Please model this.
Amino acid sequence: MFEIAELGHKVNKADYNEKIPGLRTHLLTQQQQLRKYDFSVIILISGVDGGGKGDVVNLLNEWLDPRFMLTNAYDSPSDEERERPKFWRFWRTMPAKGSIGIYVGSWYSLPIAQRVHNDTKDAELQHQLTQIKELEQELADDGTLIIKCWLHLKKEQQKKRLKQLKKTPETAWQVTERDKLHLKLYDDFVRVAETVLQETSSTQNPWHIIDGSDIRYSSLTVGQCVLDKIQAHITKHELKHQQPAPTQHSKIIHGNQPRILDSLDLSLELNKKTYSTQLNLYQGKLNKLARQAQQKKISSILVFEGWDAGGKGGAIRRLTHALDARNYQVTPIAAPTDEERVQHYLWRFWRHMPRAGRITIYDRSWYGRVLVERVEGFASEQQWTRAYAEIVNFEQALTEHGIVLLKFWLHIDPDEQLRRFQEREQISYKQHKITEEDYRNREKWAEYSLAVNDMVSRTSSQAALWSLIEANNKRYARIKVIKTYCKALEKALD
Amino acid sequence: MFEIAELGHKVNKADYNEKIPGLRTHLLTQQQQLRKYDFSVIILISGVDGGGKGDVVNLLNEWLDPRFMLTNAYDSPSDEERERPKFWRFWRTMPAKGSIGIYVGSWYSLPIAQRVHNDTKDAELQHQLTQIKELEQELADDGTLIIKCWLHLKKEQQKKRLKQLKKTPETAWQVTERDKLHLKLYDDFVRVAETVLQETSSTQNPWHIIDGSDIRYSSLTVGQCVLDKIQAHITKHELKHQQPAPTQHSKIIHGNQPRILDSLDLSLELNKKTYSTQLNLYQGKLNKLARQAQQKKISSILVFEGWDAGGKGGAIRRLTHALDARNYQVTPIAAPTDEERVQHYLWRFWRHMPRAGRITIYDRSWYGRVLVERVEGFASEQQWTRAYAEIVNFEQALTEHGIVLLKFWLHIDPDEQLRRFQEREQISYKQHKITEEDYRNREKWAEYSLAVNDMVSRTSSQAALWSLIEANNKRYARIKVIKTYCKALEKALD
Model:
């Protein structure tokens, strides 16, 4: 597949100098235009050693307005990066909507290098590629334009380049042992790269293979490619918005669907005495397990979802009572900040990812996408139906990294909710917790029920099971939450 | 000074249980109230080993609403933290206005530990304490309430505690070699702590020394202290806002002040040919120096300030042309995001601090405080006059860490500016750069001149000198900028 990039394309200096001013003007004007749109552009610059990745990136930086772009180079990960799932470092530097991110080295670098050095087998590479495709698909679904450029160089050219560099003492130091090794591995590298590029080229996110032997040719080609792709994306975007808005999604409730939640026995309860004994017992147990997990650098992510007044706060407090405050973080999810709003909706959850051995507790979470955003129409039907798979992938990234992931749904019935609302209105320091909106949400109980059922059935996997908590009785619910976390930690420590 | 905390204060269980519900309600109500105010609260929990720091922090976490607070524990710094000035790790986790940050371990931990272990001498400790006082003063000036609690324990009590822990196998493992060492160093520790506490107790930010021998007593005392201090701060804040607004600061221009900028020779220029030769020469030189700096992990921060149309963008582009795009970041400073607005004005600059060996280029910077914010009245006179010292301290933190810091002022005269504005209006891809505001700002040339003169004279230090660039001739300016950076790198590499 690289043949076309081995023809030795060249652009002479005069042609180059003639074309550059126009290209630059167009790029700058376009970048200015891009500011208005709610999508971001990711430009991946990959390729073989000596293919001129650095030169091309330098030129792009010179041509574009640095205020609305960001260049990210990924060397070996820092310890803060190593302690999180592998895609974290890419998420943390994701460009905001309306701006451009240039990636030198990307999610492709490590999978290719590992396979070339035989650190992985084909099956593992395939698995990594599947994850990459999912990531790119999710970004594309969010509107992101991904432009993937591969700068190619023939083996002889690579050899020649190293020779040339070695000639003068001025440049000889640039040739490292790593370069020599890479030359030796050239054939393996190209073979692996071929597989990777074939596997990950789609109509939506294709690879552009570019002859890297002449920097004038390659930079012009990359520049023109960026210009064309962004223009096409803007046009597509405009067209989509001119079309009539999709019809409102049907809000009919399918009454005869099997309801997972209906099977919960809400009469389960614990009396005060049993509760007190068990609370002591399990908090003690959890304290010990959590300390062991911390020592073994096992992180946890606990998600609390549930009906309003379902008792999330109380359950979280009883749980954290057994933990060391220096080691956990409760992250409440409210309206996104403006920095969060210009990113993919999962970005704000990536940013709170715990370091090794720590615990992040989400009071509400990414499930808002398929609950409140679905029911209230904040997300389009297309967005929330797509979210199930996105969430499953996201959670898989967590569990694959060894994070203990627990998802609690605190379930109560409408009568119990009403009772608690009224109770809250009586207690001074709880009054702020109850607003008119809470009452309005009650009226949509049936729609929320449907959403919860869909959520539980579509996002439960072996590694990321939902823990459904019968919560009409707070005592029962709190104990069950702590017990569930204990069990999960025991399993992880085993 | 610790005598009062060695009296063995105790609270019995009945008293404690009676007081807690009221305290909790007050804290929660107050925390709710705090949301409205534009200041943050920092609670430092420090003290001797076994003084119950962990217990107190756990209780505060239980009592307060986790949605509007954050607990930060500072273990040994990560590599990303080690690569930045020492206060960076504290800035990155600063609580937002309206919320509470609890710090376990803080900027005090390392200075105390280093002195106790004789890694530093008294003079160094004094220097560190000065920096701490400056930091706390700056936060306090910004409205931040800092509550500093020191949990004390007598030597015999510390001994007793370790003995008790060792008794049962259940707890014996908790006693580490470090604990034993700390017991041995108890006297030194208390002596150093005494100096530190005395030095850093001010009327505004006093230390609260609390008997840590009884957890019920210490947690109640800390809780009550937090409640009282926040209440007093709110009252003070309200009073300040009820007072008549301070009179507008005088905008009279002191015409007979010596003007640093007036001494610049704006007729300096380079012809095209000399420019072309020198550009090549110095870009080549810079490229080499920058690579060496990268290898030696020397970071740079370059600040570009100047008149509108002074040629910042062009100078930056000529400079970055010589750099590797993977290694620098141009950070344009526009309006703050809402996450930045709820922080100290220097916070957004701390967050872009480069990692070791990298370069951050600011297109406009923290100097906005004493330029546009001063002239346009966005900052109060109190705020911008205070900013000179804050900026000097901030820059000292950078240069002490070994960062190469350069500050460029690109100077042109009003006629040249007008010429450039008109020119910009003619060039399609530059039109977006010119707005009505630019013309409005021109009318305030005299006021801005005064502000620039004050800025240069009050924020120039040996380590952070202003480079004044005669910029009526773009060619001359660009070469001088690159030459200046080359010289600075040569000095740093020496």
